[in-house]
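FORM 7B: Structural annotation worksheet

SECTION A. Query
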Amino acid sequence: MNRELNKFSVNLPAGRDLNTWSKELVKTRVTDSICTSAFRPFVHENNLYQLNENMIALYDFHKNPLEGKYQSVILDKKEGIILCQKNSRQLVNYFLKHRLILGAVLQKKLQKELGFYYRHAISLGEIAYFSLRAHSERHTCWIGLHHMQTVQQVEDKVIFSHRDNGCTYNFEFDDYAPNLHKRLAEAITHNHVFGQMLVKYANSHGFHLKLCKCRKKNLVADQEYFYLTKIQNALNLKDLAEAAIEEFHQNYGRQCAEFFDIKDWKIHDHNLFYRLSRRIKSIL
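SECTION B. Predicted structure
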């Protein structure tokens, strides 16, 4: 193999002009360089790809699919460059529905409790995925914050950087939300608080859990981005989950009332059904 395309522990090509990635560069390299023998080992098609901790960056091409069919290109630490026919929204929704407890409900509930306005993070404590635009928008590019050490804005681009074995990879985005620094700070704080809640919950049951020290050099643990919130120390994972479930039940009641055209429905009208539905939590 060409010496300039050495594989590091990050399974991406490294060499002159190959350490910087952007949506345009991905498009050019996948469509023009995929046929070269040196580049081909890094590129794979996987329409069953699922978001996981090895995801470094996800570039969304839903408006103009590559080769007319690939709506996403994922840079993965182990699998390299993944071509996927699913768009970013489909990949993220599957992850939320099938891989996370309570899906997006718990994530949104914590964001609300912290008083944060923006919604960009999917938090797991040691792992955090960050969208370049808010969740409410249908499609967006994503970055794995737990792989990044630095971020900077240069002119009209935002650049996330990952260093590995003396090699620096830069991931550029030119389509991102305004006030990105504040949005990023809220996302990193959201992830930090969620991680501390997981640790407290595990420790309360005798599992002496600590967050991995290897994350301390990455953005997920960069204290310069932390917001000091009065409520975060009082938050409890069980209480937050219970509140999220109760909110789900109340929303379900409102939807039923609207469907059956019940004019004067109130939350307490739903209490009986809510209590009965929760009986399954008891062993009696």
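SECTION C. Observations
The radius of gyration is 21 Å. Helices lie at 23-32, 88-99, 103-113, 180-204, 237-259, 271-277.

SECTION D. Sign-off
Analyst initials: ____
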